[in-house]
Write a structure and sequence with these properties.
14 helices; single chain; binds pyridoxal-5'-phosphate; globular; Aspartate Aminotransferase, domain 2
């Protein structure tokens, strides 16, 4: 349609949202579908956070705020950055947006020109390449592998950098693999970046608190202080605080960049919801006690998913360090046929057949740029997860 912009034609709708919508549609039609496709915790938002929101409404904190956040929230973010990572930021170096997604988008919109390249390791969170395209840049996808536990190596990063590279997008623990970079693994990457002063780092720390076993989260500017001046550290309250619907994300970085991001936001959405901002102040400043019990549940579910999926012939499922996803390979199932006669030639065929013939919704690997795999989100009850994994086992066993 000529009426639509050329930019839009380069972008695809979010496949994770599409898979969840298809599962919802089948459920509404009466099918007993188990959804393992949505990227959100099944826990409720903690009570103290809800109470802070109710108090904000009662106190009339329901008006426009500064476009990129109230001073109280910016201060809470500075305090958090110092407490958790030893990083010093002032409120002028902080931007609050409507979800983590908006802050990442603002930063790309504020900085990309035609010809600018953005390095994105695959598999990646579905929105990175499309946001880069919307902002007029060029995504440079670098595929990782099962063998490197889906982590980018220093050699790969070095080889991907060109004079046109503007940003390197880094995400640990990762959506969709759950892979978390150790300090040493991250240091190997930051050493490369130190040799290329024109490359900026956009780190997406959204799953910071969802780190398991003895994995210790760290962020690039903490591992390599020399990168502080060209790092945008992005985070949000959506995942760890079970606040996906409240829509609060934030970023900390150089003042000039933060100012440019505010300009984008002030001419698009203006401030994020005032009530949600007050709730986020409580999330960051209040008790963090619920994180550990939530993580215990996540670890148990991760172990259920890994052990049940690894038991399937043709499936390889590594154990990730964090987030609430596993990303098994189905290389051993490609070329097979379902009982209803559907050929499994790609991971998309697998995902569609699994939904239609076994009532389990997952997301196919092609959506995240690395195939043949699928992503399971284990942020659901132990019972639903176990039943879904049984169905996946039976479905895979039925392939010929
Ligand atoms: C890696 C990653 N970054 C950012 C986001 C966006 O989070 P928000 O819901 O706060 O926009 C998500 C959500 O799925 C994510 O997985």
């Amino acid at each position: 349609m000529d009426f639509l912009s050329a930019t839009l034609s380069r972008v695809k709708p979010s496949p994770t949202i599409a898979m969840t919508a298809k599962a919802t549609e089948l459920k509404a039609a009466g099918r007993d579908v188990i959804g393992l496709s949505a990227g959100e915790p099944d826990f409720d938002t903690p009570q103290n956070i809800k109470d802070a929101a109710v108090a904000a409404i009662a106190a009339g904190k329901t008006k426009y705020t500064a476009p990129d956040g109230i001073p109280e929230l910016k201060q809470a973010i500075c305090t958090k950055m110092k407490r958790d990572h030893g990083l010093d930021y002032t409120p002028a170096q902080v931007s609050v947006g409507t979800g983590g997604k908006q802050t990442l988008y603002n930063a790309l919109m504020a900085t990309l020109n035609e010809g600018d390249e953005v390095i994105i390791p695959a598999p990646y969170w579905v929105s990175y390449p499309d946001m880069v395209l919307l902002a007029g840049g060029t995504p440079v996808i670098v595929e990782t592998s099962l063998e490197s536990s889906f982590k980018l190596t220093a050699e790969q990063l070095e080889a991907a950098i060109t004079p046109n590279t503007k940003w390197f997008i880094f995400n640990s623990p990762s959506n969709p693999t759950g892979a978390g970079y150790s300090r040493e693994q991250l240091k190997a990457l930051t050493d490369v970046l130190m040799r290329h002063p024109h490359v900026w780092v956009m780190t997406d720390d959204m799953y910071e608190h969802l780190a398991y076993d003895d994995f210790e989260f760290c962020t690039p500017a903490q591992v390599e202080p020399g990168l502080y001046e060209r790092t945008l550290t992005c985070n949000g309250v959506s995942k760890a605080y079970a606040m996906t619907g409240w829509r609060i994300g934030y970023a900390a970085g150089p003042v000039e960049l933060i100012r440019a991001m505010r300009k984008v936001q002030s001419q698009s959405t203006s401030n994020p919801c005032s009530v949600s901002q007050w709730a986020a102040v409580e999330a960051l400043n209040g008790t963090q006690d619920f994180l550990a019990p939530n993580n215990e549940k996540f670890v148990r579910r991760r172990d259920i998913a890994v052990s049940m999926l690894s038991a399937i012939d043709g499936v390889t499922c590594p154990t990730p360090e964090g987030a609430f996803y596993v990303y098994p390979s189905i290389a051993g199932l490609i070329g097979k046929t379902t009982p209803k006669g559907t050929a499994i030639s790609t991971d998309e065929d697998f995902a569609i057949a699994l939904l239609e013939e076994a009532d389990v919704a997952i997301v196919f690997g092609a959506a995240f740029g690395l195939s043949p795999n699928f992503r399971v989100s284990y942020a659901t009850s132990d019972e639903a997860l176990t039943e879904a994994c049984k169905r996946i086992q039976n479905f895979c066993a039925s392939l010929t």
